[in-house]
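Structure (tokenized):
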């Protein structure tokens, strides 16, 4: 219920207590009908909904952000571990590759390595007489053709030189000989004491083929050990 008006709604003059007519403009106060109050309940509900939506969005964003922050360290750690693992793998593989490349044999690298390559090839492939050689201590000498018709014949066929091979501890003559042709072919022999017997090489093979065989079978390091100890 609205109380009595204190001012004239028509002219704004102050109303005397108990008066029914405005003394200034004659307005009858009984005709006064106050304007209905604005309904604000709808606006309040709308504001409440907006605030609720904003709050939900804020909470959702905060939850997602927290979840991402919690997951990132694990991802970073996994990536770091994988990177480290790859780095370790690469670093361990590189020296191996370099070592393998360094150890590979090349024909003509040095006379001692060429001789060591012939010895290792002949014994590992099981050529008669050569397969019994063991260890890494050998002697390679130039066969003296004088007084030995067989060596003289082999020397003539091998550019004037026949190489005799024996274990360093061996005493007496050796039947193991090889010669080199001008085209790089190696002739590997096991000669007998019978001067009348013909001599046919056990194997004729290019020096490049010997080097390839030893490299493929991982014997390059062993050849180098023989070459270091080889006596001439």
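Design, position by position:
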């Amino acid at each position: 219920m609205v109380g009595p008006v204190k001012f004239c709604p028509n002219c704004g003059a102050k109303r005397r207590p108990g008066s029914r007519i405005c003394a200034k403009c004659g307005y009858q106060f009984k005709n006064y009908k106050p304007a209905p109050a604005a309904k604000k309940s709808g606006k309040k509900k709308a504001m409440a909904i907006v605030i609720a939506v904003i709050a939900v969005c804020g909470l959702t964003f905060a939850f997602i952000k927290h979840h991402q922050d919690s997951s990132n360290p694990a991802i970073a750690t996994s990536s770091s571990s994988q990177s480290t693992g790859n780095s370790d793998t690469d670093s361990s593989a590189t020296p191996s590759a370099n070592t393998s490349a360094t150890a590979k044999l090349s024909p003509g690298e040095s006379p001692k390595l060429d001789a060591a390559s012939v010895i290792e090839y002949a014994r590992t492939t099981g050529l008669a007489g050569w397969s019994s050689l063991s260890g890494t201590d050998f002697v390679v000498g130039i066969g003296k053709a004088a007084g030995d018709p067989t060596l003289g014949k082999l020397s003539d066929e091998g550019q004037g030189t026949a190489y005799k091979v024996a274990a360093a501890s061996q005493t007496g003559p050796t039947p193991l000989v090889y010669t080199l042709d001008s085209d790089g072919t190696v002739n590997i022999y096991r000669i007998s004491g019978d001067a009348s017997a013909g001599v046919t090489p056990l194997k004729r093979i290019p020096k490049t083929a010997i080097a390839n065989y030893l490299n493929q079978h991982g014997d390059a390091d062993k050849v180098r050990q023989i070459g270091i100890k080889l006596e001439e």
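Reviewer-requested clarification: Residues 87-100 have pLDDT under 50 and may be disordered. The longest helix spans residues 41-103.
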